[in-house]
Amino acid sequence: MKPYHSFFLSVFFSLSLLSTSHADGFFDWSSNNIQVLHGNNFKLGDKSRTLVTIEHVDGWRYGDNFFFIEFIDRNDTSTEVYGEFYPRLSWSKITGNTLPFSFIQDISLVGGLNAGNLPKADPYKAYLLGAGISFNVPHMDYLTLDIQAFKGDSVDTTGIQVTPVWSVPFQLGSLHFLFKGYAEWQSEKATGGSSTLLTQPQLLLDVGRLWNNPSKVYAGIEYHYWHNKFGIKGLTEKVPQAMIMATF
Fold first, then answer.
1. CA distance linking residue 216 with residue 226, whole number of Å
2. Do residues 105 and 135 lie in contact, with contact meaning Cβ atoms separated by under 8 Å?
3. Rg (CA), the chain
4. In the 8-state DSSP scheme, what is residue 163?
């Protein structure tokens, strides 16, 4: 296993184990989940894929951490392993002050590391640094916006990545739903080709609540949309995926 894949796995399991026990008060809160998705009609590689994603997020004294690692079952090559890690430092937590704008909850300094095991000849790596904004929006679990400089190892130029992330719980009758996801826009200098837009909104039913175990098991759909995938002009994926998510 490549060193940075070992790093991703070590970070995830360390953060998960520490946050589960709250590490003697080091973490203020934490959440983990496992997602299993299956979809068809991908444009590059296997048209049909099953993907397993493990996510972790936590909050601590001076900021928070978000991390995911995914495993994609592919017949055209070896199993694809890909991960992203985003630590951030919170202005309000460090200074102890609140912002003068009621609609902004916090601002943060955000770093990032993206890495995968493919392509085999030159495995993907990218580095990010920028700022994040957390908004106060009624009826939303969260709404954030990150604006970061983006530098991939295989590209000579440094570009921009803009990423809004959201989560909206809602109820229809006795059924409880969660609409969550993100959108990720990258500039031409970030991709080394055309600018890209990747978004993966999820609509999930809280099926655990049907058995008096709310917020533990969700089922639904994720819509995968990637315009100019990998910076390749005109290559667009539109893939609905069946999804199950378990939280712990």
1. 29
2. yes
3. 18
4. E
**8 Å CB contact between 190 and 150:** yes
Q: Is the pTM of this model over 0.85?
A: yes
Return d(Cα 118, Cα 74) in angstroms, integer: 12
* CB distance 157 to 137 below 8 Å: no
CA distances from 151 to 120, 125, 135, 180, 190 (A): 20, 9, 27, 27, 6
pLDDT digits (tens, 9 = 90+) for 108-157: 999 999 999 988 888 999 999 999 999 999 999 999 999 999 999 999 99
- Does 91 score more than 90 pLDDT? yes
How many contiguous H segments (helices) and E segments (strands) does the chain have? 3, 13
pLDDT of residue 192: 96
Amino acid found at 61 = R
Ranges of each domain in the chain = 3-247
Nearest to 56 by CA among 85, 24, 22, 79: 85
Matching CATH number, 3-247, of 3.40.50.300, 2.60.40.10, 2.40.230.20, 3.40.50.720: 2.40.230.20
Q: In whole angstroms, how far apart are CA 2 and each of 8, 113, 120, 122, 166?
A: 10, 15, 11, 12, 32
Longest CA pairwise span in the chain (Å):
53
